[in-house]
Amino acid sequence: MSGGLRALFLAALAAILLAGCGSNPDRKQVPASDMYQSANRAMKQGQWQKAADRYNDLIQRYPFGHYTAQAQLELAYAQYKNQQPEFAILAANRFIKIYPTHQNVDYAYYIKGLANYDRDKGLLDSLVPHSVREHDQHNARQAFLDFSELAEKYPYSKYADDARERMEYLRDNLALYELGIAEFYLKRTAYVAAINRAEYVVENYQQTPSVSEALVVMIKGYRALGLEQLEQDVTRVLALNFPDHPFLRPEDQSEGFWGSIF
Question: By three-state DSSP, how is residue 12 classified?
C-alpha cells in the first residue's frame, strides 16, 4: 500500500471510530453524584441487588472519586442485606484496607461481624440449647472476633454497644458448643479429653451459664479416673460459686443426664 493510500485508509478509519464514539456517549459523562443517588434510591426501596450493582458500577467508573469510599461502604451493606455474606465481608475488608483511617471505618468492622453473625443466627434462634452444642460454631467464632475487634479499636463507636451485646450472645453459644464436646467425651469414657474441654470452658467462658456444668463434667471425669483430691477441689469450687447447683444435692446425683452416665 502506497503512502498516500495508507494515509487515506487511516483517515477513514479515524472517522469511523469518531463516529462510533459520537453514537455511544462516554459512560463517565454520568456524574458520580447521580450514580450514588441512584444507588441510594434502590437501597431505600430494599432493592439490594440493584443497589449493589449500581455501587459497583460507580466504584469501577470513578475508582478515586469523591463518592467512591462511601459507595464501597454502602456496597458492603447492600450485599449483607442481599444475603451475600461472603461478598459483604470482601467489600468491608476492601474498605478497611483502602481507607484504614476513614471516619466510618468502624462501620466496616460492624458489617463484617453482622455478616458472620447472621449466617447462623436464624438457625441458632430456632434450636434448643443441646442442639446448639452440636452445631459447628465457626461463623460464630469469627463474628465474635469481628465484634471484639470493633469494640477494642473503637470503644466509643455508636456500634460498639450493640457489638458487645452480640458478643455476649455469641459467648454463651460458644460455651455451649465446647460444653457439648466435653459431654460427648464424657459419655464415651474419654475422661481426660472431657476434663480438658471442660477446663477450657471454665477458663475462657467465665460468666456464662455453661461454667457450672463444665465444673460438673470435671468432677465426674476426676471421679471416674479415681483422682479423689482433684474431684474434691473442683467440687469446692462448684459449691463456692454455684451453691444451689442440683449436683450438690446427693438425692439429685442419680437423676437426669449425670445419673445416666454412672
Answer: helix
Task: Report which residue type is found at 97.
Answer: K
pTM over 0.85: no
pLDDT in tens, 152-205: 999 999 999 999 999 999 999 999 999 999 999 999 999 999 999 999 999 999
Residue 190, class by beta-carbon neighbours within 10 Å (0-12 exposed, 13-18 middle, 19+ buried)?
middle
What's the CA gap between 3 and 162, in Å, rounded? Answer: 74
Per domain, the residue ranges of the chain are 150-262
Q: Examine the pLDDT at 27 and tell me if it is beyond 90.
A: no
Residue 188 to residue 191: CA distance in whole angstroms:
8
Computed over its alpha carbons, how large is the radius of gyration of the chain? 29
**Smallest Cα–Cα separation from 180: which of 257, 260, 77, 67?**
257
**Residue 250 DSSP one-character state:** G
**What superfamily in CATH does domain 150-262 come from?**
Tetratricopeptide repeat domain (1.25.40.10)
Contact 141, 106 (CB under 8 A): no
Amino acid at 119: R
Predicted local confidence at residue 31, as pLDDT: 92
The predicted-structure confidence for 204-241, as pLDDT tens digits, reads as follows 999 899 999 999 999 999 999 999 999 999 999 999 99
d(CA 242, CA 207): 12
Spell out the long-range contacts of 33-41 with Cβ–Cβ below 8 A and sequence spacing 24 or more. Answer: 33/67, 35/61, 35/62, 35/67, 36/67, 36/70, 36/71, 39/71, 39/74, 39/78, 40/74
Q: In the structure grid, which three cell numbers stand for residue 86, read together?
A: 461472603
